[in-house]
Amino acid sequence: MQNEHEQLAPGALLMRAFAAPQSALLLQELQQVTARSPLRRMTTRGGYRMSVAMSNCGACGWVTDARGYRYDCVDPLTAACWPAMPASFAKLGTCAAGAAGFPDFVPDACLISRYEPGARLSLHQDRDERDLDSPIVSISLGLPAVFLFGGHRRAEPPRRVPLAHGDVVVWGGPSRLRFHGVMPLADAEHPLLGRCRVNLSLRKAR
Ligand code: MD6
Ligand code: FE
């Protein structure tokens, strides 16, 4: 099974179209989540307004503001708990992680990121999670994008990995803290999502 997938680095696997069969259900559940906790462009501690619009579902959600980055169980926009993580998200996360060699992964946070044309994510590490033994499961929906998968130093030139609707990338173990990012989204029209890309990033945050 694993050799049908592409290894990006030890502990990092690209599984093309892994989420494609469930994508209609994922999008339907996503709509219910973002109806309650809308996508919004957050501002970093440095005062930079992110080009990517974000929301969360699950027991806790990732936020950034003048106080910095953190996980919080309350959505600052609604002052309510984040919407529960749909069972289809958690199940796909567990299944993808298992296929990549990380059994028993149970995500408690799902970061939702919406990229419109021109939106990008600069090289960063996902290191705000308490549990760094669990992998990141990243699901791409909608327009294609170029994912940047780097090393353990920001200066290390990243691999450019084209990602399309339904592709899933899992990174953990020795790759858990690799730098990664997304190139500015090229403008196009996707039959299900229109002019945007959505990324679902499943983690065990606490
Ligand atoms: C991606 N996203 O969109 C990769 N990291 O393919 C991320 O690396 C990411 O969307 C932290 C928070 C939100 C994200
Ligand atoms: Fe990330």
Task: Compile the SSE list and pairings.
Layout: E1 6-9, E2 12-15, H1 23-36, E3 40-43, E4 49-58, E5 61-65, E6 68-72, E7 74-75, E8 80-81, H2 87-99, E9 109-115, E10 121-124, E11 136-142, E12 145-149, E13 159-163, E14 168-171, E15 180-182, E16 197-203
Antiparallel strand pairs: 1-2, 2-14, 3-4, 4-9, 5-6, 7-8, 9-16, 10-15, 11-14, 11-16, 12-13, 12-15
The chain binds N-[(3-hydroxypyridin-2-yl)carbonyl]glycine and fe (iii) ion.
- Share of residues in strands: 35-45%
Q: What's the CATH architecture?
A: Sandwich
Q: What general outline do the C-alpha atoms trace? A: globular
Bound molecules: N-[(3-hydroxypyridin-2-yl)carbonyl]glycine, fe (iii) ion
Order of strands, main sheet, comes to 1-2-14-11-16-9-4-3
CATH topology tier name: Jelly Rolls
Structural class: mainly beta
Order of helices and strands: EEHEEEEEEHEEEEEEEE
Overall average residue pLDDT = 96
| Amount of helix | 10-25%
- What does the radius of gyration come to? 16 Å
- Please report the number of helical segments: 2
Biggest sheet character: 8 strands, antiparallel
Distance between the termini: 30 Å
Q: Supply the CATH class.
A: Mainly Beta
- Going by CATH, the homologous superfamily would be Alpha-ketoglutarate-dependent dioxygenase AlkB-like
How many strand elements?
16
Counted up, domains total 1
Low-confidence parts lasting 5 or more residues at pLDDT below 50?
Answer: none
